[in-house]
UniProtKB/TrEMBL annotation:
Belongs to the amino acid/polyamine transporter 2 family. Amino acid/auxin permease (AAAP) (TC 2.A.18.1) subfamily. It is found in: Endomembrane system. This is Amino acid transporter transmembrane domain-containing protein. One of its GO terms (biological process) is amino acid transport. The keyword DNA-binding does not apply. One of its GO terms (molecular function) is symporter activity. It comes from Linum tenue. It is a multi-pass membrane protein. GO terms for cellular component: endomembrane system. Residues 2-416 form the Amino acid transporter transmembrane domain.
C-alpha cells in the first residue's frame, strides 16, 4: 500500500541526492569563480527542476492522473516512446550505473592513505555483500548509507565554516581572479571539468519515478511529486551552494578535489567523516550495482532456462547452527564476483576522483535528466513539430547536449593528463 506524501518524497530526494558529489563542489566553484560557480549551480538546479516536473507527468500513461502506472524510469520510456529509444535509455542508464560503482570505489579509497590497498579492502567487502540474492534484504544498508552521507556532508561544511571563521586563509578568493601560474588553456579545461562535477551532483532523475511510486494516489501523484521535487531540489541546491561557496572561501585557489582531504584537524572528527564516507559508499555501491546484477541474471535465465549452472540454487548448511544455511547460485557467485573485481581493478587503474565523477556527470546528465523527460513530454502532449513549445524544448535539449559534450571533453583531457604522471599500483 502506497502511503507516501510530499514530505516523505522530499526526504527521499534529498537523501538520494546528497552524496559523494558534494565533496567536489568546492573545487568546482574554485574553477568557475565566485559569480559563474553559483550561477552554474543554480542553472543546473532549474533545469533539473523543470525536467523533473515533466518526468512527474510520465509516471502514468497515457493520462498523467488516471493512466497506468510505470514503476521504473525505463518503464516510463517504454510506455511513452518505445522502440529504439528504450534500448538507448537502457544503455545510458546501465552505463551510468557501472560508472558510478567504479566512481564510488575510487571515492571510498580517497579517504585513506594508501588508495590501492583500501580499494582492495572495499572490493572485498562488496564481494560479500553482492552475494545477497534479494536487494530488499539490504534495505537497512540503504538507510544507513543515507544517514552517513548527510553526516560527512555536514562535517565538511562545518569544518569549512570554522576555517573561514578562524581566518586561516585570507588571500585565496583574491588570488583566484588572476590565475598567474596556470595557462588559459589549462584553466579552460578545468572549467569544463568543473561543469561535469556539477552535472554529476544533479544527475539523479532515474530515481524519481521509483520515489513517485511510493506516493498515495490522492492527491494525484504527479502534483505531489512536483511539490516534492521543488522542495527537495531547492533544499539540495541551497546545501550545495553552502558547501561549494564556503569551501571555496576556506581554501581559495587551493581548494582540494575532495573537500575533506583539505583538513588535517581535528583528527577525531575527520576520522568520523571518513568512516561515514566509507559506510555510505559501501551501501551506495550496492544500490547502483543490484539493478545491473538483476538485469544480467534475469536475461541469462530467460535465454538459457535449461542450464542448471544459471538457474539452480544450492542449499549450503552451516554446521553447529541448527541446520541454518543459505542458497548459493553458481552463476550468481561467478558473475557478481567478476563484476566487483573488474570495477575494483578499473578504479585502481583510474583513481582520479574529480575527473571520473565529472565524466560520469557529463555522460549521464543530458540523456537521463534532460533528453528523455523532454521527449516523453513531447510524445504525451502531442506537440506539433516546429511549434513554439516544441522548438523551445528542443533548444533546451540541444544546449544541455552541448554542455555535456564540453564537460566530457574537459574530463577526458583531465584523464589524459592524469595518466601521464600516474603509475598503476605504485602511486
Amino acid at each position: 500500500m502506497r502511503t507516501g506524501t510530499w514530505v516523505t518524497a522530499s526526504a527521499h530526494i534529498i537523501t538520494a541526492v546528497v552524496g559523494s558529489g558534494v565533496l567536489s563542489l568546492a573545487w568546482a566553484i574554485t574553477q568557475l569563480g565566485w559569480v559563474a560557480g553559483p550561477v552554474t549551480l543554480i542553472i543546473f538546479s532549474l533545469i533539473t527542476l523543470f525536467t523533473s516536473t515533466l518526468l512527474a507527468d510520465a509516471y502514468r500513461h497515457p493520462d498523467p492522473v488516471t493512466g497506468q502506472r510505470n514503476y521504473t524510469y525505463m518503464d516510463a520510456v517504454r510506455a511513452h516512446l518505445g522502440g529504439l529509444k528504450v534500448r538507448l535509455c537502457g544503455l545510458a542508464q546501465y552505463a551510468n550505473l557501472v560508472g558510478v560503482t567504479v566512481g564510488y570505489t575510487i571515492t571510498a579509497s580517497m579517504c585513506m592513505a594508501s588508495t590501492t590497498i583500501y580499494m582492495i579492502i572495499f572490493g572485498s567487502i562488496q564481494l560479500i555483500l553482492c552475494q545477497v540474492p534479494n536487494f530488499h534484504k539490504l534495505s537497512w544498508i540503504s538507510i544507513l548509507a543515507a544517514v552517513m552521507s548527510i553526516t560527512y556532508s555536514f562535517i565538511g561544511l562545518g569544518l569549512s565554516v570554522a576555517k573561514v571563521a578562524a581566518a586561516q586563509l585570507n588571500e585565496g578568493a583574491e588570488a583566484t581572479t588572476t590565475w598567474p601560474t596556470v595557462s588559459e588553456a589549462h584553466r579552460l579545461w578545468k572549467v569544463f571539468q568543473a561543469i561535469g562535477n556539477i552535472a554529476f551532483a544533479y544527475a539523479y532523475s532515474t530515481v524519481l519515478i521509483e520515489i513517485q511510486d511510493t506516493l498515495k494516489s490522492s492527491p494525484a501523484e504527479n502534483k505531489t511529486m512536483k511539490r516534492a521535487s521543488f522542495v527537495g531540489i531547492s533544499t539540495t541546491t541551497i546545501f550545495y551552494l553552502l558547501c561549494g561557496c564556503v569551501g571555496y572561501a576556506a581554501f581559495g585557489e587551493d581548494a582540494p578535489g575532495d573537500l575533506l582531504s583539505g583538513f588535517h584537524q581535528p583528527l577525531w572528527l575527520l576520522n568520523v567523516a571518513n568512516v561515514s564516507v566509507t559506510i555510505h559508499l559501501i551501501g551506495a555501491y550496492q544500490v547502483f550495482a543490484q539493478p545491473i546484477f538483476s538485469l544480467v541474471e534475469s536475461s541469462c535465465r530467460q535465454r538459457w532456462p535449461e542450464v542448471k549452472f544459471v538457474t539452480t540454487d544450492h542449499q549450503i548448511t552451516i554446521p553447529f547452527l541448527g541446520g541454518t544455511g543459505f542458497h548459493v547460485n553458481c552463476f550468481r557467485l561467478v558473475w557478481r564476483s567478476a563484476y566487483v573485481i573488474v570495477t575494483t581493478v578499473l578504479a585502481m587503474l583510474l583513481p582520479f576522483f574529480n575527473v571520473f565523477l565529472a565524466l560520469i556527470g557529463a555522460a549521464s546528465f543530458w540523456p537521463l535528466t534532460v533528453y528523455f523527460p523532454i521527449e516523453m513530454y513531447i510524445a504525451r502532449a502531442k506537440l506539433p513539430k516546429f511549434s513554439f513549445s516544441w522548438m523551445g524544448l528542443q533548444a533546451l535539449s540541444l544546449a544541455c547536449l552541448l554542455v555535456s559534450l564540453v564537460a566530457a571533453a574537459g574530463s577526458v583531457e583531465g584523464l589524459i593528463q592524469s595518466l601521464k604522471v600516474y603509475h598503476p599500483f605504485k602511486n
